Amino acid sequence: MAEAQIGIIGGSGLYKMDALKDVEEVQIQTPFGYPSDALIMGTLEGTRVAFLARHNRNHTLLPSELPFRANIYAMKQLGVEYLISASAVGSLKEEVKPLDMVVPDQFIDRTKNRVSTFFGEGIVAHIAFGDPICRNLAGVLADAIASLNLPNVSLHQGGTYVCMEGPAFSTKAESNLYRSWGATVIGMTNLPEAKLAREAEIAYATLALATDYDCWHSDHDSVTVDMVVSNLQRNAVNAQKVIQETVRRLSENPPPSTAHSALKYAILTPLDKVPAATKEKLGLILKKYI
Ligand SMILES: CSC[C@H]1O[C@H](OP(=O)(O)O)[C@H](O)[C@@H]1O
Ligand SMILES: Nc1ncnc2[nH]cnc12
After folding, report:
1. Which reactions is this enzyme annotated as catalysing (predicted)?
2. Residue 34 labelled as part of a binding site
């Protein structure tokens, strides 16, 4: 099986990475079904990476339809230890302008219909999630953004990403509620990924690309898909530069991550009491502990 230490999940508007060399497309089956699309393996800055279009290259999957478990498990099968998510988000703060980049460090869960754990079926585990983003990976990502000095793009390091169910965008009352909570950006995808990545002991960080002011801002039109995609297309070149620079820095100096041992104290069920079928299904995740 092709291997990569670094994974990239591209969201709305980022369906491929132009700079990848020696590209190989791999269809991966996991115990949780097929991922959103084939994984694109390629070399970036001399390092093998795995790229996945979160909603499929043809954008056929709603946020609520995403096979989150298969996506993260497939990354684990490829040997991924660091996962960078690029995502379109709405801004909930005046100072976060469309086209700005945010590296969030917190989430608020407003989803209703997502499976966000690999556990169950006879095995119980509770990962620590007080710091849902890997601080060291986020640091590398933020340093990479800062080093590029991208014109007209401000970096906001830290901030809270509200993850809503969708697919409809928020009402003004909801948007203002999230603002009153001090949240920074809003999207529909990153929280289940962050939880599953943590369970799979993969370090996870988000490159949030602001595309709109959601619907709260009286001087801006309410968010539309056109607005999101046209802004993200304007930003896609920048996003790829950031990812490339992040990969260069990561491959030179892969940082330690507490995510890499997240399960050490998380599993409650004695492993000899876990049904054999479950042990087999979660084999890749559990093997360190068996
Ligand atoms: C196309 S607008 C809404 C859509 O965009 C974001 O997707 P992603 O996080 O994959 O970039 C947002 O979460 C919604 O899924
Ligand atoms: N305003 C918004 N709400 C939810 N998801 C988004 N993705 C991009 N903009 C968004």
Report:
1. S-methyl-5'-thioadenosine + phosphate = 5-(methylsulfanyl)-alpha-D-ribose 1-phosphate + adenine
2. no
CA-86 nearest atom, ligand 1: 11
Integer CA distances (angstroms), 108 to 83, 104, 139, 228, in order: 20, 11, 21, 21
> Ligand 2 centre and the CA of 186: distance in Å?
6
- Is 1 among the domain residues? no
Strand 101-103 to 39-44 pairing: unpaired
Q: Among 179-188, 206-215, 229-238, 255-264, which stretch is predicted with the lowest mean pLDDT?
A: 229-238
- Do the annotations mark residue 188 as ligand-binding? yes
Range of the domain at 176: 6-289
Look at residue 233 and give its three-state secondary structure: helix
Q: 134-190: per-residue pLDDT in tens? A: 999 999 999 999 999 999 999 999 999 999 999 999 999 999 999 999 999 999 999
Q: How many domains does the chain have?
A: 1
Ligand 2 centroid – CA 57 distance (Å): 19
**Ligand 1 centroid to 123 CA: how many Å?**
32
Ligand 2, residue 187: give the atom nearest the CA: 5
ipTM, interface predicted TM-score of the complex: 0.99
* One-letter amino acid for residue 218 of the chain: S
213 assigned ligand-binding residue:
yes
What is each CA distance from 222 to 105, 121, 171, 202, 265, in whole angstroms? Answer: 26, 43, 10, 36, 45
pLDDT, tens only, 78-115: 999 999 999 999 999 999 999 999 999 999 999 999 99
Q: Which of 163, 153, 176 minimizes the C-alpha distance to 222?
A: 176
